Amino acid sequence: MSASVSLRDITDFAETLAREAGELIRREREDNTLRTDYKHQTELVTHADVMADEFITGAIRKRFPDHRILSEETMPDLSQAEELDTPLWIVDPIDGTVNYAYGHPQVAVSIAYAERGEVQAGVVHAPFPGETFRATKGEGATLNGKPIKHSGATEPRQSLFATGFPYTKDNLEPLVRRLDAMIHQCRDLRRIGSAALDICWVACGRLDIYYENVSPWDFAAARLIAKEAGATAGHFGDVPADYPADLWGRDILISAPAVWEPVRSILRSASGYD
Ligand code: IPD
Ligand code: CA
Ligand code: CA
Ligand code: CA
């Protein structure tokens, strides 16, 4: 990053882009008939996903032509996450596309900025309720400008958890085993439909626990927001030694600190890892 651009400036820029993209996707849903396509099996993509992706990545490229970009719709090359020499932007133009297409409000634009594989800034903007979560590393996390904190949950039995399920239905069995174990040992489940919002909701105490297997664009920004809100973020499975943990999407577990270890044990044993 050039000496004149601070991480705060980077976060401000990401927030401006997320808000403008949020306005675009809100307008497209309200004013137009969505043009919807299938990516594969049950995964949808709308014309607004692609428009928002092109808007955000175009603006990043214009301001920071030397930086790399990983984005779900136009630049999904995951090998970018392993190249550490130049800064990386990680973009999900619409997290919660199925919600978006069905007219549900839980939809977010997610933008993260990483240096040497470590996320330094993250913004998750939900345009329908008008909520913007943001964090700059080391400076705490906010929701619409007000500091946020995790719930402080102390035991799984009194915890509300969220998770999600992949669009590809080839290997659901381990996920069903985890779900079975968690439902038996926690208060209840919410399936919000946006991984970024699941994690931001752990950050602000609307949920106590989140776990899933997702892609970097789904969680990179929200994970920093959760950490900056004092939640514990890690993995219940192994992260390859040479891969940046901030961008590793398998077996993610983010929760209020006191329940993290007990839930990790539940998920490891349900997964057959121990
Ligand atoms: C999806 C959402 C969902 C999660 C899926 C993701 P998309 O992202 O975050 O909650 O369960 O794994 O792919 O496709 O709506 O951007
Ligand atoms: Ca997503
Ligand atoms: Ca998406
Ligand atoms: Ca998608």
Show the helix and strand layout.
Blueprint (H helix, E strand, L loop, with lengths): L6 H25 L4 E5 L2 E4 H17 L4 E4 L16 E8 L1 H6 L5 E8 L2 E9 L4 E6 L4 E3 L2 E2 L12 E3 L10 H13 L2 E3 L4 H9 L5 E4 L3 H13 L3 E4 L16 E4 L1 H15 L3
Parallel strand pairs: 3-4, 10-11, 10-12
Antiparallel strand pairs: 1-2, 4-5, 5-6, 6-7, 7-8, 8-9, 12-14, 13-14
Helix pairs in contact: 1-2, 4-7, 5-6
The structure holds D-MYO-inositol-1-phosphate and calcium ion (3 copies).
Q: Care to describe what's here?
A:
Helices cover 36% and strands 24% of the residues. The protein is an alpha+beta fold and 274 residues long. The protein has two domains: 7-147, Fructose-1,6-Bisphosphatase, Chain A, domain 1; 156-271, D-Maltodextrin-Binding Protein, domain 2. The strands form three sheets. Strands 3-4-5-6-7-8-9 form a seven-stranded mixed β-sheet, with helices on both faces. A five-stranded mixed β-sheet has the order 11-10-12-14-13, with helices on both faces. It is globular, with a radius of gyration of 18 Å. The structure holds D-MYO-inositol-1-phosphate and calcium ion (3 copies). Residues 72, 92, 94-97, 164, 166, 193-195, 212, 214, 218 line the site of D-MYO-inositol-1-phosphate.
